[in-house]
Amino acid sequence: MAVLAGTDFFSVEVLTLRGLVTYYVLFFIHLESRKVEVSGITPHPNERWMKQMARNVTMDGWGFLNNCHYLIHDRDTKYCQSFRDIIESGDVKTLPLPARSPNLNAFSERWVKSVKDDCLSKLILFGETSLRRALHDYLVHYHAERNHQGKGNVLLFPTATQAKNHVDGSVRCKERLGELLKYYHREAA
Questions:
Q1: Measured between alpha carbons, how far is 129 from 28 in angstroms, rounded to an integer?
Q2: What global pTM score does this model have?
Q3: CA–CA separation, 86 vs 98, rounded Å?
Q4: Angle in degrees, CA 147, 136, 25, rounded to 5
Q5: CATH ID of 4-186, from 3.40.50.2000, 3.40.50.2300, 3.30.420.10, 3.40.50.1010
Q6: Bigger pLDDT: 60 or 157?
Q7: By C-alpha distance, which of 13, 2, 16, 32 is closest to 151?
Q8: pLDDT digits over 116-158, tens only?
Q9: Which of 23, 99, 85, 90 is nearest to 63 (CA)?
Q10: Strand pairing of 70-73 and 4-16?
Q11: Interhelix angle for 47-57 vs 81-89, to 10°?
């Protein structure tokens, strides 16, 4: 699991001055740690854009796929041959999944369900900026504030103060996105 990553798209309807626009969100997830990175958001995921996203995630030193050896993805035509070639040039083998088999990319599918159910379905987004802000806040909540049942009901990446067990402190509530996302923590004594 430590060398596996998954990728997928999901779409979000955003209200703009031109009416409703469908934005496509490309994300990558490291399967062992469950770390997620939203790589790009665009209304038109064409080949040129996909090639740039592939270059970004395979960049030496800081690309998301640096320590991964395999990338699983569905057979969506957006994963063009040039995208897969760039990924493979970064020493990551792409593994297209069989048609109509979402269970084989279950961690990606579960993250899409989480972000949509917990966040995006409860918001009216006005423009790309509000979509980016909502996804950024949700990612912070997902990584550092939300307990994960599949990982022993612990936080994925706790901050230094969260890692300590404060027994005597009072319980505080931290909120994001106008009280949509809530996190309860014990304050230091």
A1: 20
A2: 0.87
A3: 21
A4: 105
A5: 3.30.420.10
A6: 60
A7: 32
A8: 999 999 999 999 999 999 999 999 999 888 777 667 777 777 7
A9: 90
A10: parallel
A11: 10
